[in-house]
Amino acid sequence: xxxxxxxxxxxxxxxxxxxxxxxxxxxxxxxxxxxxxxxxxxxxxxxxxxxxxxxxxxxxxxxxxxxxxxxxxxxxxxxxxxxxxxxxxxxxxxxxxxxxxxxxxxxxxxxxxxxxxxxxxxxxxxxxxxxxxxxxxxxxxxxxxxxxxxxxxxxxxxxxxxxxxxxxxxxxxxxxxxxxxxxxxxxxxxxxxxxxxxxxxxxxxxxxxxxxxxxxxxxxxxxxxxxxxxxxxxxxxxxxxxxxxxxxxxxxxxxxxxxxxxxxxxxxxxxxxxxxxxxxxxxxxxxxxxxxxxxxxxxxxxxxxxxxxxxxxxxxxxxxxxxxxxxxxxxxxxxxxxxxxxxxxxxxxxxxxxxxxxxxxxxxxxxxxxxxxxxxxxxxxxxxxxxxxxxxxxxxxxxxxxxxxxxxxxxxxxxxxxxxxxxxxxxxxxxxxxxxxxxxxxxxxxxxxxxxxxxxxxxxxxxxxxxxxxxxxxxxxxxxxxxxxxxxxxxxxxxxxxxxxxxxxxxxxxxxxxxxx
Length: 517
Hints:
Elements: E1 14-15, E2 31-39, E3 48-55, E4 58-66, E5 71-76, E6 87-90, E7 114-116, E8 121-127, E9 133-139, E10 145-150, E11 154-156, E12 166-168, E13 180-182, E14 185-190, E15 197-202, E16 208-213, E17 238-239, E18 245-248, E19 265-268, E20 274-278, H1 283-288, E21 299-300, E22 306-310, E23 315-320, E24 336-339, E25 344-350, E26 356-362, E27 371-373, E28 376-379, E29 387-391, E30 397-402, E31 417-421, E32 424-432, E33 449-454, E34 461-464, E35 483-485, E36 488-494, E37 505-512
Parallel strand pairs: 1-31
Antiparallel strand pairs: 2-37, 3-4, 4-5, 5-6, 7-8, 8-9, 9-10, 11-12, 13-14, 14-15, 15-16, 17-18, 18-19, 19-20, 21-22, 22-23, 23-24, 25-26, 27-28, 28-29, 29-30, 31-32, 32-33, 33-34, 35-36, 36-37
């Protein structure tokens, strides 16, 4: 089962119950594209997967996808048949169109939903005209909408834009972060606006139970004036078994007085009170350079008390979950810090107060959340390649291997996904986004390219979907994450370019071919 973003609430990106795919069987002769589904909008959200779901009186392995046209599909994961879904549900009410915003032409469902397997319910956030956003609960067997609630939030604030001392969740905010479902609560992160937000809703009643704002008394500033947004290139907040919530925030104010939480890794309780934090010592420089620490999500490393995070400045941090490290000179509070690439340089910028700041910059930017397998973290940066860093006993990271080729510059790197049979037969899967839809500066989008590497040594590439014309995926969408289940790999993409009035999306399905090429 893959009911949430990046496999699990620790966000490891690992499916260790995948016996069908082995490094020896994944190559251009025996592995390739099996079929595709066409859906009514772009697939920014990661697909989800459940096995043996009863739909229409028959058990199906199901892949669930959500589109920017505010639709949710249940698709047979093994056979497309005539291309029809098992069910399709539109979250648009009578007379409504999808929302509009940063994603063109429609901004509908952008975040990855979360599924409560026990109660057979999917939670999904949809966007509608005027910036209205709704939290919806769907029956995973029928697609029926069990409940729906308009999302709103406010916190006390001293800012001029506050109304009667209350700062309201702005309609400009984008709900990009994957949903987190833990201990009966759904957590929803927002960014792309002057403040960062994290909201909590009771999963049974859809009643709001808590609100966190990362900068309630300070507006965002700079070239991209975020206020500590929670977006993580689509990554969902992480949680541990005790119910603590971990997020990483993007550009925004950070004054060290716990009133501005930009550029920080945070540990919050279920009521969204901050209990601990890590802020890089050079947070002001990172803000000035638009180098979000929160451009990727956090991973809670299994069997340890470590958390891993890394952002646009190209530095990877290992943190102690129980004591994240606060803000100390040279990041002394972190367990370790490692540059994705050893070639760094010194740069300068001027902050919003006219101060000239100097700092160290990595020449690779991390937008992809790391994946974890067999004692190592797998990292995709822009432009890459995929790298394997082995976790040492002291919490430091050691580069163990690197992929043979870089990904496309400007494609915003990759979030890897790993399939394995227990601790054996590990394969690293990643999508090279090339030129994503809407991100080419006038250049046409390119096809997404699925890559597979041997997890033991990522310098050994097993396969990529550009090796055979028949394997071409749809048009690339930035930050897309592949998933692997039951011998198949699922990749969301675009079927049409933005030049089409209502562009369709595409789900591409890869696996072992019935007959070798």
